[in-house]
Amino acid sequence: MKYLNGRFSALILFMSLFLIQGCQVNPVTGKRQLAFMSEEKEIALGQSYDPQVVAEMGKYENPKLAQFLTEKGNAMAAISERPNLPWKFTLIDSDVVNAFAVPGGFVYFTRGIMAHFNNEAQFAGVLGHEIGHVTARHTVTQQARQTVGQIGLIGGMILSPELASQGESLMQSMQLLFLKYGRDAESQSDELGVKYSTQIGYDAKEMAGFFGTLDRLTGGSENRVPEFQSTHPDPANRKVRVGELAAEAQAAAPGQKFEVDRDGYLRLIDGMIYGEDPAQGFVEGGSFYHPGLAFQFKVPGQWQLINSPSQVQMVSSDQKSVMIMKLAAGTDQNAAAQSFVEETGIVVATSNQNAINGNPATTIYGDITQQATEQGQTAQSTRVKASFISYGGNVYMLAGLSLPADFTRYQNDIDYTLTSFARLTDQSKLNKKAETIKIVTNSRSQSLGQALISAGVPQGRVEELAILNGMEVNQTIPAGMLFKALGGDIRQQK
User: What does the angle CA 81 – CA 83 – CA 84 come to, to the nearest 5 degrees?
Assistant: First the structure.
């Protein structure tokens, strides 16, 4: 026991020295915080992430909107605590309602969140929030906490052989624990969003209104996990708190007029794509269609499809199997399959060169084994069935994967998808257009619901568009007021 206590004391001393050396001054609070990353490394990390984010999610090409994001972002960054970072603001081609930042001053807004703002002040508040994550070094703090957690876990392994036997899974859990910002970091960024947007002249009370939109988008408090179980503060609570912070900030600047600019913002997003962009592929009636590349394939029921510029993923409902479709290198399906074998080390059990719906194809089936890297570890295997299909001058890899013990359970679904790859000839699918935001002037005093119906919005989507407008369906809007309706290919249901 004496020896054990001595080792434990040495570990505590080591960790104490480690923590002291890792502390740096937070630019926002002026207090010391955990950070094992210099600003130079933080910037380099962001510069390495940025092209990966753009490649994976895609950039939304809208010069006016991109310029607006960059101008407002630079104006806000200039009055922040870290004006000298190489700030970069990018508009992402995703219909997900999201904004995020990575270390070093790289900030991203999806077109989905831009569609849901109803004035410049709402946008400015969220912009300030994301800039706040960077200025307060929240991402860097996450990395530091993860490092400390791993040190403590390593110490525990030294002291407890039983814990050491579970080390790999515990380390993965520790990484997941710090994957997202905590509620304290989110709350601090809300405060900074109010501070920064107020300083550049926007009415931060409108930021509180946007949290009302988030509250409705997430189904209201009755459909969310309790706040104490969530990584983010409850949107309804954030709405109240941000409103209080905005009132305090404005009280400190008596006589100053704060900008909202509803009409200017709405005109700026007029014509912007809303929802998924069919040109990049879409799911309808149990199939995935890609008009631009003129192909289609079936999606099994209960599988979730995730579409990105680099690949399409389908995940089984229990998340124990995945299918991936992506471009393979070259134009020869046999060569692409051989490259896959060489790169992955797959042990091929069977292979064939049977065409798939008239398209030359090579299909292989076998196991990829990840060898153990340390003594005591068990080698891990993944079973794969992959078809390399030559079509339209490209080779497409369509593959299904799971653990070997589970593969039989998913094989019918995997075969269903792999054998369904085919040419897309349906003109209604090939010519499908994106829905767009259409800014309409209200013709007379009426409810928002009435105005939406008059503007051609299907009855089944009135509530969706009410949330998009940040208003209630039965709310009366005056004649001459601008509101969001739909243009392009209006569908009955989302």
Answer: 125
